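Incident log, structure service

09:12 report received: a user says their structure output differs between two submissions of the same chain.
09:20 pulled the input from the user's history:
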Amino acid sequence: MRRVATVQVLLMISATMLCCLPAASADEAETVIGANVTWADDQTVEGTVRIVSGGHLTVHGADATVSDGSSIIIEEGGALTLNHAGLLADNPPTVIASMGYWDESNRSKFMVPGEGIEGAFDVTMTAMNGDSYFGDGAHIGDEVINLNGSSHTFSFEDGAGDVWIGLIGFSSTSVTVASITIEIENGGSTTILGTELESVNMKTAGEPGFSIQVDGTLSSVDSTVSGGQMTVGGSMSADDSSFDRLGPVLLGNEATIELRGVTSFSGSLDDHDVRGGPGSTIYWGDDVSGSGGLIDRWERRVSGQSIQLDAKYVILSVSGIGPSEAIQEIFSDENGTALVDGGQERVVEIGYSDGTVWTEAATIDVITYVTSWNPESSGIGNYGGGSIPLTWDQNIQLNSGTPNIEWESLEIVGDEDTRSTSQSMPVLARIANRGTASALLYFTCEVDGLEADIGGYQEARIDAGESVEIQFGWRSSVTGQASLTCRILTPLQLVDEDSFGGGSMTTGGMTWTEPVEEDSLPVLPLLAAILVAVGIAVTTMLRRASDAIVETEEEILSYSRDEDD
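09:34 re-ran on a clean worker, output below:
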């Protein structure tokens, strides 16, 4: 029994150790955590720490220093808790960069700490590795200084004190400051990294030291995360925590972030601290602070957004796009797809640093949506239903304000189901419009795949919600059993032939026969009628001729009498 118990204990210890031992990898070490693990002492993270479903890593009262290029991956079902702890990049970004604004109120600037320096001093400003100051400028008071090269040296007189240097880039590009070196005339020098300088309207630049992917949950209480890049697909919560050079936190469209207490952001690498999608959940508590200035608390972005229509080459106007509230004309392609802003990523909501929020309120208006069912001459007007809001949905279906035609019935009129080929069979069609716009349409009919004689295309104008009847005659030159199939002709502009309804319907069967005598006038009565008509015509002509001769003789006699007199 003792041996069994000993074996069980050893197995339990082995399982516990295996849950957090590095796994072999061809590229880097990987530590997999599949159970409850606590780090209560300072740690160094190298390679990948992967917290799988059912795993929970707690860093309690300790700092975890993460080496360059390392990553922490929290899979769905996994959890990471930071409790009075630190998750710190071993080599965080230290460069700062201007925001690209030229006006004085929004201009980026940093302060040279000259207060207390005795004598004249020089300040050498160095750009980020690989960057240049070509075409850039610096503002010191009312003086504008042209910059060039990868560094620039400013000279200051004794007693200059603290000096603010404003930066403007070529066009609207960023001006980077990797560090400044202060050299005192009396000897001695000091180098200060960019992120250690007091600055206004400047962001952090450079590569994050590590990455955190949160598809499970991350909870931070009174802790610090610095110098990494965080992407959240699951949920993240922070209470009384600080995030330094971490922003923007990138949220998936279904992700959630909750920021409470006196949580703060500083040194974001972009002009916002949190970036979400249209479906992300963002809670920003009243006492939570962001990087400030021109760095917004959050942005929501939409990319690849499209409007789907039933027809090709529909022209739309989209107004109120993005923070500039631009107006664009777009059109649907061969697939009926119209891309909003060319499908580019755009900002649809901004939580400004002052606590106000701007939200896009764009609209879609139809300029031209004309098909063969609503030509300009019909007076029906454009399809599309007028102006509608541009939502944040990835794909917007614009299918309102269109007809939806369907057959109700197609039947032979009367009780007879037999006709001779010399006669016409009356047919009654009933067609309804279940849509929200009128349609001027045509239909044709066929028998066994061949065009039927119905007197040409049949026309019908059907208003929205209306049902109409169209009666026409059907003739056939072929004897035998037959059924008539009628088909509505749909617009060629439609992507899907059935988008506006339509379809076909078939009558019941009937029989066409050869003509019989009673089907036509008898021959003898017809000849008699012709002879009678000819006789009447001849008699009328003779009578008129006789009257003309008599009138002529009377005129001659009258003329003779006049001569004799």
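09:41 both user submissions now match this output. Likely a transient worker issue. Closing.
09:42 reviewer note: Residues 405-515 form a domain with the Immunoglobulin-like fold (CATH 2.60.40.3880). The first helix runs from residue 2 to 18.
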